[in-house]
Amino acid sequence: EVQLVESGGGLVQAGGSLRLSCAASGFTFDDYAIGWFRQAPGKEREGVSCISRGHGSTYYADSVAGRFTISSDNAKNTVYLLMNSLKPEDTAAYYCAADLYCSGTWQDYWGQGTQVTVSS
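and the corresponding structure tokens:
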């Protein structure tokens, strides 16, 4: 059974940092791209970052480029999202998901989410 479990969310002041973790199980870890998404209340889900299948390439939304860093630890089957210089507009529920490609439809495998709240 494929499982994705996020952790690391919390409350932080603007300008602060958080590191989210996405622990994966039930599949060959680097056979899949892992993406981070977020959804704020009343807004559509937004793609934040993705690390490619094989974990050799990374992609970022313009809104987080230069502030967020995605990385993977294949020994721990875990993908991280390091978030620096956080802004109140980064407040959202953050989810990780798995798909074969960063350009995939992201329909099948999702975690339960972790809340990030950035205070001004």
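(Above: one complete record from the training split.) The chain has a mean pLDDT of 96.
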